[in-house]
Write a structure and sequence with these properties.
- The complex is a heterodimer.
- Chain A is an all-beta fold.
- Chain A has a single domain (4-109), classed as Immunoglobulins (Immunoglobulin-like).
- Chain A is 0% helix and 59% strand.
- Chain A has no helices and eleven strands.
- Chain A has strands at residues 4-7, 10-14, 19-25, 29-37, 43-48, 52-56, 59-64, 69-74, 83-91, 99-100, 104-109.
- In chain A, a hairpin with a 4-residue loop joins strand 7 (59-64) and strand 8 (69-74).
- Chain A is globular, with a radius of gyration of 13 Å.
- Chain B has strands at 5-7, 10-13, 19-24, 31-37, 44-50, 53-57, 64-68, 74-78, 87-94, 96-97, 100-101, 105-106, 110-114.
- In chain B, the strands form three sheets. In chain B, strands 2, 4, 5, 6, 9, 12 and 13 form a seven-stranded mixed sheet that branches. In chain B, strands 1-3-8-7 form a four-stranded antiparallel sheet, with no helix packed on it. Chain B has a two-stranded antiparallel ribbon with strand order 10-11.
- The N and C termini of chain B lie far apart (36 Å).
- Chain B is 0% helix and 53% strand.
- By secondary structure, chain B is mainly β.
- Chain B has one domain (5-114): Immunoglobulin-like (Sandwich).
- Classes of the chains: A mainly beta, B mainly beta.
- The interface between A and B is medium-sized, with 23 and 28 residues.
C-alpha cells in the first residue's frame, strides 16, 4: 500500500488564527483530496488537488507531487472549522482505492 | 447538485443479525467505494466497483459482501453482525478521468450500532 501521514494530529486554535496542516505520502499519486469531517460525521470535500495550488475562500491547498506532500492552509479560523481534516490519496496504478491519513483534529475556540 | 445517497442513515441491529446498506451514486459516476470508520479512526477501505464489476478489495470480513446493480446503485450486506461492526459506513462515487479517477464524493454515511 501507500503510507499517508498527517501532522499535527491535534491542533487547538483561537478564533481568527491561521494554521497549516500537512500530508506526506510515500508513493506517487494520481489523486489527492482534502476532506473536513464535521462533528456529525459528514465528510465534506475541500479540495481535489493531485498537484498545484487551489484556493477557496479562507482555505487554500498546495500539493507538490514530486516531493510527495500536500499542505492545507486555514486562515482566519472560525469555530465552524472545528472537526477532523483528512487527506486521502489514490496511488498511481492502483485506482479505485483511497488511502486515508489518520487526520488532524482541529478545535477552534471562541 | 445531486449527491451520493445512502440509506438508512441510522441502523440498530442485534448481534448475529444481518444488515443491508444501500448506496445511490451520483449520476454518471462509474466507480463506487465503500468505507468503514470506527470511532476515532480514519476511514478504512472495504471494497470498490467500476462499471458494476468489483475493482479492488480491502480488509473486508468474509461475513460482508457487496455488489453493484445494473442501475449503478450498490448494496453492502453484512451478516452475523458483531459488536465490533459498529461503525460509520460510507459510500463514495467518482467519475473516471483520463488519468484515472477524478474527484470522489462521499455520502452522509450509515451509522450502524450493533447491540
Amino acid at each position: 500500500g501507500i503510507q499517508v501521514e498527517q501532522s499535527p494530529p491535534d491542533l487547538i486554535l483561537q478564533e481568527g488564527a491561521n494554521s497549516t496542516l500537512r500530508c506526506n505520502f510515500s508513493d506517487s499519486v494520481n489523486n489527492l483530496q482534502w476532506f473536513h469531517q464535521n462533528p456529525w460525521g459528514q465528510l465534506i470535500n475541500l479540495f481535489y488537488i493531485p498537484s498545484g495550488t487551489k484556493q477557496n475562500g479562507r482555505l487554500s491547498a498546495t500539493t507538490v507531487a514530486t516531493e510527495r506532500y500536500s499542505l492545507l492552509y486555514i486562515s482566519s479560523s472560525q469555530t465552524t472549522d472545528s472537526g477532523v481534516y483528512f487527506c486521502a490519496v489514490e496511488r498511481v496504478g492502483n485506482f479505485n482505492k483511497f488511502y486515508f491519513g489518520s487526520g488532524t483534529k482541529l478545535n477552534v475556540k471562541p | 447538485a445531486a449527491g451520493v445517497i445512502q440509506s438508512p442513515r441510522h441502523l440498530i441491529k442485534e448481534k448475529r443479525e444481518t444488515a443491508t446498506l444501500k448506496c445511490y451514486p451520483i449520476p454518471r459516476h462509474d466507480t463506487v467505494y465503500w468505507y468503514q470508520q470506527g470511532p476515532g479512526q480514519d476511514p478504512q477501505f472495504l471494497i470498490s466497483f467500476y462499471e458494476k464489476m468489483q475493482s479492488d478489495k480491502g480488509s473486508i470480513p468474509d461475513r460482508f459482501s457487496a455488489q453493484q446493480f445494473s442501475d449503478y446503485h450498490s448494496e453492502l450486506n453484512m451478516s452475523s453482525l458483531e459488536l465490533g461492526d459498529s461503525a460509520l459506513y460510507f459510500c463514495a462515487s467518482s467519475p473516471t478521468g483520463e488519468a484515472g479517477n477524478t474527484e470522489a464524493f462521499f455520502g452522509q454515511g450509515t451509522r450502524l450500532t450493533v447491540v
